[in-house]
Each structure stands twice: as structure tokens, then as C-alpha cells.
Amino acid sequence: MAWLQRFILHHIDRYQQKGGGTQQFGVSCNFTPTCSEYARQAILKYGSIIGCYMAIKRLRRCNERDRVDRIHDPVD
């Protein structure tokens, strides 16, 4: 595993351990798995560059703050 990948995954893990978006921003993710978990899985599967690109695309779609139901959107 490359140093960049370890660095990014370390920061995602810290974000998740601190409670993620619910604790830090007062919002919950519209998707399952959560956006941070999706980013972690994408980076592990596709590497740092493509995984981060996929995570950014996912975050751009996560914009309905009051959504009740969750959208199932796994890493393909």
C-alpha cells in the first residue's frame, strides 16, 4: 500500500472514529454505505487517485440534508 493511500485512509478512519458527519456537522449521510466508508472502500479497491475521484463524485450527490430514507450505493 502506497504512502498516499495509507495517509488518506488514516484520516478517513480518524473522521469515522470521531463520529463522522453526524457528530462533526450535525447531518447524517443519505447513502449506505456512508460517504466516508464508500471513500475508504473505493480507495482500497481502485487506489488513491481513482478512489478519491469516486468519493468526490459521491459527495457531490449527497445534498439532501433532511432525507429520511437511505440510497443503497455500493462501490462497484
Detailed description of the structure:
The protein is mainly alpha-helical and 76 residues long. The protein has four helices and two strands. Strands 1-2 form a two-stranded parallel sheet. Helix 1 packs antiparallel against helix 3 (35-46). The longest helix has 15 residues, at 3-17. The model has no long low-confidence stretch (mean pLDDT 90).
Key terms for this structure?
mainly alpha; single chain; 2 strands; 76 residues; 4 helices; 5% strand
Short recap of the structure:
By secondary structure, this protein is mainly alpha-helical.
Q: Spans with pLDDT under 50 lasting ≥5 residues?
A: none
What would the average pLDDT be, to the nearest integer?
Answer: 90
Q: Helical proportion?
A: 55-70%
How would you write the strand order of the largest sheet? 1-2
Task: Describe the sheet with the most strands.
Answer: 2 strands, parallel
N- to C-terminal separation? 20 Å
Order of helices and strands: HHEHHE
Tally of contiguous helical segments: 4
Count of DSSP E strands? 2
What is the SS-derived class?
mainly alpha
Globular, elongated, flat, extended or rod-shaped: what is the shape?
Answer: globular
